[in-house]
């Protein structure tokens, strides 16, 4: 996918996103590979990010592979890629299991404290 004009918002690309020299993007980008030769402002998450000689980036970058050509500009903060989504899901699932078990325990406690009514024959 290539941006030659202006785009604002959240962009999700499975492979490569190219912001051409005439392109401008503002928002949050999620891509496998991001090539910037135009302007980008916001947060980007990519396995590989290239800022070319006419590229200007302002914001936050999450990537383990960042290159900036001579003449390219970056003003912001970089962080390692956040690819622990699988671990996060496992933790969230474990927390959910704990929550369900706690609810089951409360229900059982309520049943144990209910007054017993003897059946009349």
UniProtKB/TrEMBL annotation:
| Pfam families referenced in this protein's UniProt entry, alphabetically | Bactofilin (PF04519)
Regions that span the bilayer: none
Using the UniProt annotation, give all residue ranges assigned to the region (Disordered). Answer: 102-121
Per its UniProt entry, which superkingdom is the organism in?
Bacteria
Q: Which InterPro entries match?
A: BacA/B (IPR007607)
For this chain, the family text in UniProt reads: Belongs to the bactofilin family.
Kindly provide the name given to this protein in its UniProt entry.
Polymer-forming cytoskeletal protein
Q: Which organism is it from?
A: Vibrio plantisponsor
